[in-house]
TrEMBL record:
It is a multi-pass membrane protein. Keywords: Cell membrane, Membrane, Transmembrane, Transmembrane helix. Signal peptide: none annotated. It comes from the Bacteria. The chain crosses the membrane at residues 21-41, 61-82, 94-114, 134-159, 171-189, 250-272. This is Uncharacterized protein. InterPro entries: Poly_Biosynth_Transport (IPR050833). GO terms for cellular component: plasma membrane. It is found in: Cell membrane. The keyword Magnesium does not apply. The lineage of its organism: Bacteria, Bacillati, Bacillota, Bacilli, Lactobacillales.
């Protein structure tokens, strides 16, 4: 190993030049964690611990479902940074469009899937005492789309192209909005109010990031094929909702509903010739 390693003088290292950009990335993550925990703390103090438990159960399912979208945007981040460093803006926009397409590809069926099975899944998974989680998760599920969009716009685009400051502003703005509207909403609607506050604050973050990105990106191109996964997911939802009302509550029948939903959704996207599906198929054929 000696031939590959060399002695570095500590005085030659300029550690502090990385401090500001690191803090700019650190602060929004702190803001995210604070307002996620603040939701539960405020709910527990202003309402009841039981209501906080209802929201926590809903929030865990939503966040778990979003891990797939989060992972995909993180994977795309270094590619965007590399293309931006080379000055290839066309490629940067292409990757952003792909990232946006992947986000909608997964976010819509996750949202409609939750809406379709929540009424039977919640009491089966958590128990009858958690029946009040159903309206909470049905509302909080609306946050899936703005969270997915903000992940793509923030982590995959704004951060790699050096607009970390704008990304931080979006997150902090959303955290402030969340805190302010939580107070009246928790007072009147408890856990449901916190779910509404989450949807509004996440939407504010996504809208602000869209505004910041609009200076360099043609936003209309991102939403060009938006209707295809939406329509496919909605039709999937109708079928899943019908099955959910017809079949008994069990793990097997829940699996049948999910499997049927995935098959219908995939088939409809192929029929509608969704661009991201075509990109995936081309990549597979090349291999």
């Amino acid at each position: 190993m000696k031939k590959y390693l060399c002695k570095v003088k500590l005085c030659s290292l300029n550690i502090f030049k990385h401090l500001r950009p690191t803090l700019l990335l650190f602060l929004p993550q702190v803001a995210i964690n604070i307002y996620v925990f603040l939701n539960k703390i405020m709910l527990g103090s202003m309402s009841t611990v039981v209501e906080a438990g209802f929201f926590d159960s809903s929030d865990k399912i939503i966040r778990m479902c979003l891990t797939l979208v989060t992972a995909l945007t993180t994977v795309m981040m270094p590619r965007v940074a590399s293309m931006f460093a080379k000055g290839d803006e066309e490629k940067v926009n292409e990757y952003l469009k792909i990232g946006f397409g992947i986000a909608t590809l997964f976010a819509f069926p996750i949202f409609f899937g939750i809406e379709g099975v929540a009424s039977k899944f919640i009491p089966w998974f958590f128990g009858e005492k958690f029946i009040k989680v159903i309206p909470v998760i049905s509302i909080e599920a609306f946050a899936i789309m703005p969270i997915s969009f903000s992940q793509v716009l923030g982590i995959q685009y704004l951060v790699p192209i050096g607009k970390t400051n704008q990304y931080s502003k979006s997150i902090i703005f959303g955290a402030i909005i969340n805190f302010l509207i939580n107070i009246p909403l928790i007072y009147f609607y408890s856990a449901v109010g916190t779910a509404v506050a989450t949807v509004i604050s996440e939407s504010c973050i996504a809208i602000l990031e869209l505004f910041f990105a609009s200076n360099n990106v043609k936003i209309s191109l991102l939403f060009k094929e938006f209707w295809k996964p939406f329509l496919s997911s909605f039709i999937m939802y109708l079928v899943v909702k019908f099955l959910n009302g017809s079949l008994k509550v069990s793990f097997f029948y829940l699996f049948v509903e999910v499997f049927a939903g995935i098959c219908i959704y995939t088939l409809l996207l192929i029929v509608l010739r969704y661009e991201i599906i075509r990109v995936f198929v081309k990549k597979l054929l090349k291999k």
